[in-house]
Write a structure and sequence with these properties.
Blueprint lengths: L1 H15 L5 H18 L4 H8 L2 H12 L1 H5 L13 H29 L9 H63 L5 H54 L1
Helix pairs in contact: 1-2, 1-4, 7-8
């Protein structure tokens, strides 16, 4: 089986080197045939793995005679390997060393980018922070109550505005609908009054529609914006403290 593999490899190599002059092609085939023979039949698979695919070896051999030949083969996906086995080993070793060096540099860069660990606080620092917190407690309680009152007040204000605007909108819509119905019912009897009632009814319905749009705008835009501003104001002292730390 080893002899068949060697012969198949050399036949494929001969076919791929058809662009070479006959003398140069035979020289190359003789060289690699003797290399197989020197390694022995038991080492045929190792030699094939060492030389690489026949196409890659043929491209490297051809590159030594004509660069134009390889430039005309942009679709070739096989790596270029040295024509001599010892050069292939050296090239593979240099490639592995370069890859290991690149991995080391990448690892060093990643370590440099890692944020430094925050300094550990000593027991005295923790005790001092606790004492300051206890001393500041009489000031923090009224401040917390004030903040809580602001939140409750803002919520009550928004809720009251929403309820009032909703009630007014509902009243306007109901009044407009009633006037429009009355005007339609009086068209046959009192035409002028009926037209006036219909006009007022339509005007009230339009005003109700505008109020409805205003309520939707407040619920979607104004209310969330107010709460975002309030939260930003409440978070501001803590963010400054974290930034200083």
């Amino acid at each position: 089986m080893s002899t068949e593999e060697k012969n198949a490899y050399l036949v494929e190599l001969r076919r791929l080197l058809a662009a070479l002059p006959q003398e140069e092609r035979e020289t190359a085939l003789t060289y690699y045939g003797e290399y197989f023979d020197d390694a022995g039949m038991d080492e045929t698979e190792r030699v094939i793995n060492e030389l690489g695919p026949a196409r890659a070896l043929a491209e490297q051999i051809l590159s030594g005679y004509s660069r134009d030949y390889l430039d005309a083969r942009p679709d070739s996906s096989h790596p270029r390997v040295p024509a001599r086995p010892e050069d292939a080993q050296n090239a593979r070793r240099r490639e592995e060393e370069a890859r290991a060096e690149a991995d080391k540099e990448l690892s060093a860069k990643n370590k440099a980018k890692e944020p430094a660990a925050p300094p550990r606080r000593s027991g005295a620092s923790v005790l001092l922070i606790v004492i300051l917190a206890i001393l500041a407690l009489p000031l923090l309680l009224p401040l917390a109550a004030l903040i809580f009152g602001l939140i409750v007040g803002l919520a009550a204000l928004v809720f009251g505005l929403g309820v009032g605007l909703g009630a007014a909108m509902l009243a306007v819509l109901v009044s407009g609908a009633v006037l429009l119905a009355v005007g339609i019912s009086l068209l046959a009897v009192h035409t002028l009054e009926a037209l006036l009632a219909c006009g007022l009814g339509l005007a009230l319905l339009g005003a109700g529609g505008i109020m409805m749009l205003l309520c939707g705008f407040m619920l979607v835009k104004v209310v969330p914006a107010l709460f975002r501003v309030l939260l930003r104001v409440l978070r501001w002292p803590f963010e400054r403290r974290v930034a200083r730390a």
